[in-house]
Amino acid sequence: MRERIGVVTLESEPLTLIGADLKVGDPAPDFEAVEPVDIVTLDFTRKGLSSFEGKNLVVSAVPSLDTPVCDLQTHRFSEEASKLGPSVEIITISADLPYAQARWIREKQVPNLTLLSDHQDMSFGKAYGILIKELRLLARAVFIIDSDRVVRYIQIMRDLNTEPDYDEVLNALNDITQEEAEWKKA
User: Fold this and answer.
1) Catalytic: which of 15, 34, 70, 84?
2) Catalytic: 38?
3) Quick one: which of 7, 96, 126, 166 has the most CB atoms within 10 Å?
4) What does residue 8 show for φ and ψ, rounded to 5 degrees?
5) pLDDT tens for residues 65-89?
Protein backbone atom coordinates (compact mmCIF):
# COMPACT_ATOMS: atom_id res chain seq x y z
CA MET A 1 0.00 0.00 0.00
CA ARG A 2 1.12 3.51 -0.74
CA GLU A 3 2.33 5.65 2.19
CA ARG A 4 2.30 9.46 2.41
CA ILE A 5 4.09 11.16 5.29
CA GLY A 6 3.16 14.58 6.65
CA VAL A 7 -0.20 15.07 4.94
CA VAL A 8 -1.70 15.17 8.43
CA THR A 9 -0.25 15.96 11.83
CA LEU A 10 -1.14 15.51 15.47
CA GLU A 11 0.22 18.23 17.72
CA SER A 12 2.65 19.22 14.95
CA GLU A 13 4.01 15.67 14.61
CA PRO A 14 3.75 14.30 11.05
CA LEU A 15 1.79 11.10 10.59
CA THR A 16 1.76 8.51 7.81
CA LEU A 17 -1.34 7.93 5.69
CA ILE A 18 -1.77 4.53 4.08
CA GLY A 19 -3.78 3.89 0.94
CA ALA A 20 -4.82 5.48 -2.31
CA ASP A 21 -4.08 9.12 -3.11
CA LEU A 22 -7.51 10.03 -4.46
CA LYS A 23 -8.11 13.09 -6.57
CA VAL A 24 -11.31 14.92 -7.45
CA GLY A 25 -12.72 13.28 -10.57
CA ASP A 26 -11.54 9.78 -9.65
CA PRO A 27 -14.08 6.96 -9.52
CA ALA A 28 -15.13 6.46 -5.90
CA PRO A 29 -13.58 3.23 -4.61
CA ASP A 30 -15.93 0.74 -3.05
CA PHE A 31 -15.46 -0.14 0.61
CA GLU A 32 -17.12 -2.29 3.23
CA ALA A 33 -17.84 -1.08 6.75
CA VAL A 34 -20.16 -2.06 9.58
CA GLU A 35 -23.30 -0.22 10.65
CA PRO A 36 -24.15 -0.81 14.33
CA VAL A 37 -27.89 -1.39 13.91
CA ASP A 38 -28.66 -2.94 17.31
CA ILE A 39 -26.04 -3.47 19.98
CA VAL A 40 -28.34 -5.62 22.15
CA THR A 41 -29.01 -8.22 19.47
CA LEU A 42 -25.56 -7.73 17.93
CA ASP A 43 -27.22 -6.82 14.65
CA PHE A 44 -24.47 -5.34 12.52
CA THR A 45 -25.00 -4.65 8.85
CA ARG A 46 -22.15 -4.49 6.36
CA LYS A 47 -22.44 -1.58 3.96
CA GLY A 48 -20.54 -0.25 0.98
CA LEU A 49 -21.18 2.22 -1.84
CA SER A 50 -23.91 0.04 -3.34
CA SER A 51 -25.93 0.52 -0.13
CA PHE A 52 -26.42 4.17 -1.10
CA GLU A 53 -27.41 3.76 -4.74
CA GLY A 54 -28.61 6.94 -6.46
CA LYS A 55 -27.57 9.24 -3.61
CA ASN A 56 -25.02 12.00 -3.37
CA LEU A 57 -22.86 11.14 -0.37
CA VAL A 58 -21.09 13.35 2.11
CA VAL A 59 -18.65 11.05 3.88
CA SER A 60 -17.35 12.57 7.09
CA ALA A 61 -14.37 10.60 8.39
CA VAL A 62 -13.38 11.08 12.03
CA PRO A 63 -10.64 9.51 14.17
CA SER A 64 -12.93 8.66 17.13
CA LEU A 65 -16.44 9.77 18.07
CA ASP A 66 -15.39 9.94 21.72
CA THR A 67 -13.22 13.01 21.16
CA PRO A 68 -14.54 16.59 21.30
CA VAL A 69 -13.75 17.60 17.71
CA CYS A 70 -15.20 14.39 16.24
CA ASP A 71 -18.31 14.85 18.37
CA LEU A 72 -18.69 18.44 17.11
CA GLN A 73 -18.13 17.41 13.49
CA THR A 74 -20.70 14.62 13.66
CA HIS A 75 -23.29 16.81 15.37
CA ARG A 76 -22.78 19.57 12.81
CA PHE A 77 -23.25 17.25 9.85
CA SER A 78 -26.33 15.76 11.53
CA GLU A 79 -27.81 19.28 11.83
CA GLU A 80 -27.00 20.01 8.19
CA ALA A 81 -28.50 16.70 7.05
CA SER A 82 -31.90 17.79 8.30
CA LYS A 83 -31.79 20.66 5.77
CA LEU A 84 -30.81 18.54 2.77
CA GLY A 85 -33.11 16.81 0.35
CA PRO A 86 -33.67 13.08 -0.13
CA SER A 87 -30.96 12.87 -2.80
CA VAL A 88 -28.20 13.40 -0.19
CA GLU A 89 -26.99 10.95 2.44
CA ILE A 90 -24.49 11.85 5.14
CA ILE A 91 -22.23 9.12 6.45
CA THR A 92 -19.91 9.42 9.42
CA ILE A 93 -17.22 6.76 9.46
CA SER A 94 -14.59 6.03 12.10
CA ALA A 95 -12.40 3.19 13.29
CA ASP A 96 -14.37 2.97 16.54
CA LEU A 97 -15.78 -0.44 17.37
CA PRO A 98 -19.46 -0.79 16.42
CA TYR A 99 -20.22 -1.23 20.13
CA ALA A 100 -18.70 2.17 20.93
CA GLN A 101 -20.55 3.75 18.01
CA ALA A 102 -23.87 2.25 19.13
CA ARG A 103 -23.30 3.57 22.66
CA TRP A 104 -22.33 6.99 21.33
CA ILE A 105 -25.36 7.32 19.04
CA ARG A 106 -27.67 6.15 21.84
CA GLU A 107 -26.20 8.65 24.33
CA LYS A 108 -25.96 11.59 21.93
CA GLN A 109 -29.27 11.09 20.10
CA VAL A 110 -27.79 12.12 16.75
CA PRO A 111 -30.30 11.59 13.92
CA ASN A 112 -30.12 12.19 10.17
CA LEU A 113 -26.93 10.33 9.33
CA THR A 114 -25.56 6.84 8.89
CA LEU A 115 -22.78 5.82 11.24
CA LEU A 116 -20.26 3.24 9.96
CA SER A 117 -17.34 1.48 11.61
CA ASP A 118 -14.19 0.79 9.58
CA HIS A 119 -12.50 -1.00 12.50
CA GLN A 120 -12.36 -4.52 11.13
CA ASP A 121 -10.67 -4.27 7.74
CA MET A 122 -9.95 -0.53 7.49
CA SER A 123 -11.42 -0.92 4.01
CA PHE A 124 -12.56 2.71 3.75
CA GLY A 125 -9.34 4.11 5.22
CA LYS A 126 -7.17 2.25 2.73
CA ALA A 127 -9.41 2.85 -0.29
CA TYR A 128 -9.63 6.59 0.43
CA GLY A 129 -6.03 7.00 1.60
CA ILE A 130 -6.75 8.22 5.12
CA LEU A 131 -5.68 5.30 7.33
CA ILE A 132 -3.16 6.63 9.87
CA LYS A 133 -0.39 4.04 10.15
CA GLU A 134 0.84 5.09 13.59
CA LEU A 135 -2.61 5.16 15.23
CA ARG A 136 -4.76 2.74 13.20
CA LEU A 137 -7.38 5.47 13.03
CA LEU A 138 -8.86 7.45 10.17
CA ALA A 139 -7.64 10.96 9.45
CA ARG A 140 -10.24 13.72 9.71
CA ALA A 141 -11.57 14.21 6.18
CA VAL A 142 -14.68 14.90 4.14
CA PHE A 143 -15.43 13.41 0.75
CA ILE A 144 -18.36 14.15 -1.53
CA ILE A 145 -19.27 11.33 -3.89
CA ASP A 146 -21.90 12.08 -6.52
CA SER A 147 -24.70 9.74 -7.55
CA ASP A 148 -22.57 8.50 -10.46
CA ARG A 149 -19.93 7.38 -7.93
CA VAL A 150 -17.35 10.00 -8.81
CA VAL A 151 -15.29 11.73 -6.11
CA ARG A 152 -16.32 15.38 -6.45
CA TYR A 153 -14.76 16.94 -3.35
CA ILE A 154 -11.98 16.11 -0.89
CA GLN A 155 -11.00 17.95 2.27
CA ILE A 156 -8.35 16.35 4.50
CA MET A 157 -7.63 18.33 7.64
CA ARG A 158 -3.91 18.97 8.04
CA ASP A 159 -4.20 18.83 11.84
CA LEU A 160 -6.33 16.06 13.36
CA ASN A 161 -7.70 18.49 15.95
CA THR A 162 -9.12 20.90 13.35
CA GLU A 163 -12.75 20.85 12.24
CA PRO A 164 -13.57 20.82 8.54
CA ASP A 165 -14.56 23.98 6.70
CA TYR A 166 -18.28 23.20 6.78
CA ASP A 167 -19.26 26.12 4.56
CA GLU A 168 -16.87 24.93 1.85
CA VAL A 169 -18.28 21.39 2.05
CA LEU A 170 -21.88 22.59 1.91
CA ASN A 171 -21.18 24.97 -0.98
CA ALA A 172 -19.54 22.16 -2.95
CA LEU A 173 -22.49 19.88 -2.21
CA ASN A 174 -24.93 22.59 -3.29
CA ASP A 175 -23.03 23.06 -6.57
CA ILE A 176 -23.12 19.31 -7.23
CA THR A 177 -26.82 18.92 -6.49
CA GLN A 178 -27.67 21.96 -8.63
CA GLU A 179 -25.58 20.55 -11.50
CA GLU A 180 -27.41 17.24 -11.26
CA ALA A 181 -30.81 18.95 -11.16
CA GLU A 182 -29.97 20.97 -14.29
CA TRP A 183 -28.62 17.88 -16.03
CA LYS A 184 -31.83 15.95 -15.29
CA LYS A 185 -33.93 18.81 -16.71
CA ALA A 186 -31.98 18.80 -19.98
Assistant:
1) 70
2) no
3) 96
4) -125, 155
5) 999 999 999 999 999 998 988 889 9
